[in-house]
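COURSE: Structural Biology Practicum
ASSIGNMENT: Worksheet 4, Part C
STUDENT ID: 0417
INSTRUCTIONS: Below are two proteins. For each, the amino acid sequence is given first, followed by its structure token string. Answer the questions at the end about the second protein only.

PROTEIN I
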Amino acid sequence: MNQKYIFGIAVALMVGVFATATLVHDSDKGARRDEVAEQNRSVLVREHSPTLGEAEARVHIVEFLDPACETCRDFYPYVKQLMAASPGRIRVSVRYAPFHDGSEQVVKLLAAAKLQGKFWETLEALFAAQPNWASHHNPQPDMVWNFINGIGLDIAKLKADMANPAIDAIVRQDLADARALNVTKTPEFFVNGRPMPSFGYEQLKQLVAEELNSQY
């Protein structure tokens, strides 16, 4: 057996060992993620969490998001498309995960807007204008005021509510729940309590399809 042939076999074996180790690692990681989610299922949603969709919907997506997160902005229309494709069967709850420096103030603005029944309108306005106030993951909270006119918010009340300790408590609670659920990046999705096996729109779509098939 010549050296070239032996070398080829050795490389193939090494690639096989690496691939197997990666699969085992990913499988263990996924199992651990499932275990953590199941153990902390009770903190997935709080009473203060904004929710969209029919209360009777049997498929519940919980999304941890940061308004300054560009990927959260990209996923927002996809989630709405999933809901539109299955009318009345999917609802969505949002949890706050202000992981970007400076985005906590914007999250407080959203929480205060919810008190005026304007959460979703405000979120959409912030996402639409995100390239202006949070370009390249660099939030500038003072700029967001330029992009929420026309929603019908009472700005004076909004600012007063943002300073209310109750709003700060909501943000602290969501961050504590994110830690309990091992949420380290945004967006992070749970569908009927199940985390995505890996990140991506197709993975979210598949997880939602599995739950729709099992629930209806």
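PROTEIN II
(use this one for the questions)
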Amino acid sequence: MINQAKPFFLHAISSIHPGSGSEVGVVDLPVQREQHTNYPKIESSSLKGAIRATVSNVTGALNGDNEMKRRISYIFGIDPEEVHQEKGKTQAGAITFADARILLFPVKSLRGVFAWVTCPFVLQRLNREMGLYSEKDFQLPVPETPSAASRELFVMENRVVLEEYTFDVTQSEETAEIAEKLQEILFPGEEFKLSEHLLVLDDDAFRDFVTLSTEVNARVRIDSKTGTVSGNALWYEENIPPETVFYSFMFAGNVRGEGMDGLKTHEDVMSFMSKEQNFPAVFQLGGNATIGRGMLQRIWL
């Protein structure tokens, strides 16, 4: 049972590949997407697995600390193969994550290098979920589209060029308010100004960009003897670009059973996970970790 929710944002520092498996098509390894919107997402199971691996590593649970291993098992769920539990005995964890949903997506711009785009549907959904789950008073305005937070992306008059598409855009105080609120959370104290990059597009244009403007990379494995592609080792994989921003929620309930000292209630669970030394601000998720992919910055709201 869920007793408490804590919202957080995920800022992609590098390209990320939350894979959905292999498919027969132009892209062999696509990313996870919502079925009804086709927006990229990070499924809760992927998110929970990556966070559990990170927490287990930084707390020493993977290096022989059996007490910490028990603590991790009570929070994330008991693995029947773990040595401190009787084999075959399982127990659900006390923590749950929502799917990470997209908030801001970077698109190449003729001015200002790139724009962060979002849309009314995304903003309305964020507001609705914040109202349902979070005790924090956090709502974003939903401006008219297309609108910009400033004129920094404007090429001429009121025009903005994204990729090869031109949009007639107006400057909006509501969009500037979104930029100001998110700046305080995502980039506090930094000289970088979100207001110079933020655009709110209509729902259809946003869907087209998040569908067609992800990164598609060719990957090969070279045979060292011949210097050519090894066998059939040529494939195309999709990645969500760096600078993409998601949001999600961490839910905590009471520990099932008797728990252990300092870990019985949902407050204990949330307290453990909220500590920087247990759940660091930067962690890795998804495939291709050895080539620098999947680095995410976690930002509590």
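ANSWER KEY EXCERPT:
Q1: The mean pLDDT is 90.
Q2: Residues 18 and 286 are 5 Å apart (CA to CA).
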